[in-house]
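Let's sit down with a protein and look at its sequence and fold side by side. We need material for that, and I hope you will provide a protein of your own picking. Once you have written the record down, we can walk along the chain together.

***
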Amino acid sequence: MIKEQITNLFIGRPRSERRLRRFEKMVHPETKFKHDKIIKWAEKLTDKQFSEEEFLNSKDTIVVEGYKLRKKVLTEFKDKYKNLDLRILIHYPGDNVSVAGKSLFTNLSVGLNHLGVKTELMPWNADTRFYLEKFKPNIFMTSDDKCYLDDINWSEVEKYKKTDTLKLGLTASAGEHSNRPIEVRLEFAKKNNVDFYFCYWDEDYVKNTKGYERYFEKGYKIFSVEFGANILEYFPLPNVKKDLDYVFLASTNRKKRPRYHEYMAEIFKKFYGFYDGPGWSITNKETDFKRDKFIYARSKIGLNLHVDNQLESSNELNERTYMLAACGVTQLIDNPMLLPKKFSDDALFSAKDSKEYIELFDYILKNPQIAQKRALKALQEVLKNLTSFHSAEKFIKNLLTL
């Protein structure tokens, strides 16, 4: 089933597909040979519970520090807003629609629930009426994308809004980020009584970017729900040997494929590591976020690349940036414009081009102590300000202004 879904992603793109397969053919043989074994190993450990002693007795400073800081943050945010009258229903996609969408909506839901706000996920192809009547939300969120909108029974939403208090929120897109004209979006909003918009961009970027002013002119608020680390699922693990030179968990995003070749072809060819995600021929199972931290724990370097608009505008860092930092993995990243606003310049290894990216990969492997020092700093910074709890709290405060 997954293979069929992956194949369907590439219909009409034979040249791109052939180039991707050529890329995979030159991958280090040990990476291919051990892929399924690593997946099975991680799946067996998915529900493993580690004791406090295992964390605190670890010889790895990152594991010890990560445990202490994470425990503090979890306690600080636990049920902080449980007395609020908020019930949030979030519509989210399956792997075949958007792994990134599935991840970010899932992590937002987890963050809200931890803060005590009742939140439920409505999956793809679900009965809209059933979820509305069962959960009784007063906030309903989905993406303002045609495939998302087509998956919802809007007549049932309209009926529910007439009998129960419900605020409807859609993602806000404009300019180069939009796949539909802004006026079409606003017409849909008027017809379906949309109450607010939200997006994943940096707040300052939204306020100062042409295109978004049309939302404001129509009286809509746009809430920034930036990515953050879901530290309930992503954290450093004790007693795991770092035997992988690199890890790269990501889909074969067409927008990034040329950069995969440029930045990672040499690394994938020469070094033993692990890669997986929708679109890769090596992938044979659906995404399971619970197993990711075990694979990250085995890696010496977490690879990360951004799409062009993230490199050219100060709009966002991808979610992977925060996940890798939360897991205490030394991160090799490109140079997205928002990076200096979120992390110190000595928290990650950032490369201005593919040549420097490959050079830094080699440098990290040869200098593990320096690499660990940066990984620790990135971990500290993400736990201080950049978790899904921090993002959820800001969102909650914004919802209360409606």
